[in-house]
Design brief:
The complex is a heterodimer of chains A (about 300) and B (about 280). Chain A is mainly alpha-helical. Chain A is about 75% helix and about 0% strand. Chain A folds into two domains: about 1-40; about 60-300, MetI-like (MetI-like fold). Classes of the chains: A mainly alpha (about 300), B mainly alpha (about 280).
């Protein structure tokens, strides 16, 4: 301990206290101005008819009631968002887990594959969306050219209510799969080696080993990654904006896209705030579940 | 036994090769198309490698739009946001890890909760405040909120977690020698925190370089566009000039790919370590 007279210690301590506050000041101020303030303000304003034009008046729960009862686009949006999540999350998790299992093995060239599959993660979503939009073009896009080569009928991938969402889901999964793969890979490396040795001695098959050793050991990682992926999928925006513009019709309107339209194209800030708050509530609940599970698992591991 | 192993290795290679080809193909196709003439783009059967390479497309990128400005804007915004985030979050991360002051843990938890606030929700009030301050169609909303908002929180969290694993003797010794917290921070903690700072800078730079939502709502003037917004504007025009668009996309993608290939282990380990904690 830094000794000295008691009085000196006290000044030192209060100096340290003020330094501490000074060091965290920019970040705390930023939090209050750019995160906490806006979220509170958005909540309050979701009970008003706030818009860029005209006076703002308190209208109670009207925005929420309008969304739930009278706005057909809201329900389209909600259903589409669930559709997107329900398609993307299992596809992404299963594929990334499978790839991580394959990459865990010590065979030649593993690093190369890991880098290749991770590459789309670092690329802009806009560029990724643009290139795939080109590949899935109806007239002369590569996928349709290949279909034509094999004598099939061309499909309007991004102009059909049936095909557009699945196309966007696959394109999004390919972009994000490397991220989850790497997280799973780290989790797999944390499984103690002797567990595998023991199961080898017992003569367990590879599937049995996966089911009874690997999967239970990485369950916490799978849950974490699943929740993070669900949250991410609820916020999907860039690829929708670039690839479909919400169409055809409203068939790929998703939550953030609709919030964007209401807030920054129609300037209905009050209504958009209500929509944003519905989204935030869902994310909040998922995050709380995640924290709760994390705490439990941390204790469990200890 | 050995045969079985060979078969299963072959199966692994097959799956990995197919997935790798699928995710790398768009990059090949992007570059290939960027070197075609407009009439070659939709030829049947598809032309994998163009007959004559149309480098002119890359020149058109700079003559038909202020693309050098898009590039410059993206670059300087990403560098500023990264530098600011690293410095401010290191400062706060050090304070939370090492200094003693009342309510430290409560404040830290409060900050941590901010990481789950989606920028899509805060964007609405921020837009109207920025508009009142006259900051619409400027770069200020693209620099300050990411630096001090959720990106900053993420940095504080990472750096604090890193520094609490560093032996306390180091800064105790500095304190004995009469170092002020600022000097301890600058000459001892900052160098030690380099790995954590590398992770924070990679994430911050990547997020800023690729950010789309905020430029989309704040910018109207072409000369102020960043790369993602500039590129997206080329797709909404009726009749897309694909060689031009994909040449521009290639130029926009090369820097981040170069950085990624040079520092791929940092990228991948950074994700692996932060994803689980």
């Amino acid at each position: 301990m830094a000794g000295g007279k008691p009085a000196g210690l006290a000044t030192l301590k209060s100096k340290e206290m003020w330094t501490g506050y000074l060091f965290i000041l920019p970040i705390v101020a930023g939090y209050l101005i750019f995160l906490f303030g806006p979220i509170v303000y958005a909540f309050v304003m979701s009970f008003t008819n706030w818009s860029l034009f005209g006076n703002t008046a308190y209208i109670g729960l009207d925005n929420y009631i309008y969304a739930m009862r009278d706005d057909p686009v809201f329900w389209d949006t909600a259903v589409n968002t669930v559709y997107f999540s329900a398609g993307l999350v299992p596809l992404n998790i299963v594929l990334s887990l499978l790839l991580a299992m394959l990459l865990k093995r010590k065979i030649w060239g593993i690093g190369l594959f890991r880098t290749a599959i991770f590459t789309p993660v670092v690329v802009s979503l806009v560029v990724w969306g643009i290139v795939w939009k080109f590949i899935f073009s109806t007239d002369g896009g590569l996928v349709n050219l290949l279909i034509r080569t094999f004598g099939g009928t061309e499909i309007p991938w991004l102009f059909s209510e049936t095909w557009t969402m699945p196309t966007v889901i696959v394109v999004s999964a390919l972009k994000g799969v490397g991220m989850n793969m790497v997280i799973f890979l780290a989790a797999l490396h944390d499984v103690p080696k002797d567990y595998y040795e023991a199961s080898k001695i017992d003569g367990a098959s590879r599937w049995e080993t996966f089911k009874s050793i690997t999967l239970p050991m990485i369950t916490p990682a799978v849950f974490m990654v699943t929740i993070i992926t669900v949250i991410g999928s609820l916020k999907v925006f860039g690829q929708i904006y670039v690839m479909t513009g919400g169409g055809p019709g409203t068939s790929t309107y998703v939550m953030v896209f609709y919030i964007f339209k209401q807030a920054f194209r129609s300037y209905e800030f009050g209504y958009a705030s209500a929509l944003a708050f519905i989204l935030f509530t869902i994310i909040l609940v998922l995050t709380l579940i995640q924290w709760k599970l994390r705490k439990r698992w941390v204790h469990y591991e200890q | 036994m050995n045969n079985k192993k060979i078969t299963s290795n072959l199966a692994s290679y097959l799956v990995l090769t197919i997935v790798s080809l699928i995710v790398l193909f768009p990059f090949f196709w992007m570059v290939s198309t960027s070197l075609k003439t407009e009439s070659e783009v939709f030829l049947f059967p598809p032309q994998w490698i163009p007959a004559a390479w149309e480098w002119i497309n890359y020149i058109r990128v700079f003559t038909e739009m202020p693309f050098h400005l898009y590039f410059f804007n993206s670059m300087y915004i990403a560098v500023l946001v990264t530098a600011g985030t690293c410095f401010l979050s290191a400062l706060a991360g050090y304070a939370f890890a090492r200094l003693h002051f009342p309510f430290k843990n409560a404040i830290f938890l409060f900050l941590l909760s901010g990481m789950m606030i989606p920028t899509e929700v805060t964007a609405i009030p921020l837009f109207s405040w920025m508009s009142n301050l006259g900051f619409i169609d400027t770069h200020i909303p693209l620099i300050l909120p990411p630096m001090l908002g959720s990106g900053g929180m993420f940095g504080v969290f990472l750096i604090r977690q890193f520094l609490i694993t560093v032996p306390i003797e180091l800064d105790e010794a500095a304190k004995m020698d009469g170092c002020s917290p600022w000097r301890t921070f600058r000459s001892i903690m900052l160098p030690i925190a380099t790995p954590a700072l590398a992770t924070v800078s990679i994430f911050t730079f990547m997020n800023s370089w690729n950010e789309f939502f905020e430029p989309l709502i704040y910018l109207n003037t072409k000369e102020l566009f960043t790369l993602p917004i500039g590129l997206s504007m080329l797709t909404t025009d009726a009749g897309v000039d694909w060689p031009l668009l994909l040449a521009a996309s290639t130029i926009a993608t090369v820097p981040i790919l170069v950085v990624f290939f040079l520092a791929q282990n940092k990228f991948i380990e950074g994700i692996a370590n932060t994803g689980l904690k």
